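User: Please predict the structure of the protein below. I'd like the answer in structure-token form so I can feed it into my own downstream comparison script.

Assistant: Understood. Taking the following sequence of 235 residues as input:
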Amino acid sequence: METITRRDFVRTSVAAGATATAIAGANPISQGAERQSQLAKNKIIAVSCSPRQGKTTATSLKVCLQAAEQVDQTIQTELIELAGLKINGNLAAGIPLEPGEKDDFPALIPRLTDPNVRGIIVGTPVYFSNMSSLCKAFLDRCIAMYKNDLALSNKVAGALAVGGSRNGGQEATLQSVQASLFCQEMIVVGNGRPGARFGATVWSGAKGGVTQDEYGMKTARNLGRRVAEMILRLK
């Protein structure tokens, strides 16, 4: 099997992403908030990197987005769930797909790099005090935007982590995700006051479900608010 260079792959990925809008429209990769008009000027996208669709990570991100929408009427939001998508992290290293293997990442490129998208919140479950393998693959594949003149530069970014215990590695996971976002020249913010920390830290084991984690939901709401407020300040 012929091996392509990382530079060759990234060039191909960017070109594919530029023509992927039609694919994105046909691909059921958005859950929650309906896709907003292309005229939106202050849009925030939350990316759920859980392999389980519609579960605790997605639910927590919806809380983030709802809080963001309450900051200003110009804020519009969208939730993208990666569950069920084929995102091969090896492609970031220039290792080609196997014959017939599907790749859903190029369809995400135009949605994330849209100038109307001013903020991106990355949410992931915590596995062994770090992000999910799906989240790592997604962030690695974002090298396409890194090589394309840092296409995510100056977008506001935040991170959310959902752990199986109250202190289950959420903050370590947040820092790991944020390290990748910093490399993209994104403006990374935490969850803001009161009690500003790295980001949203949620406990999935709360009795009655994740939304009953009062502390975690507060950090999620604060993160959404903080991302929206920073977008407006920068504008």
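That's the full token string. Strands lie at 30-31, 42-48, 75-81, 117-125, 156-163, 187-188, 200-203.
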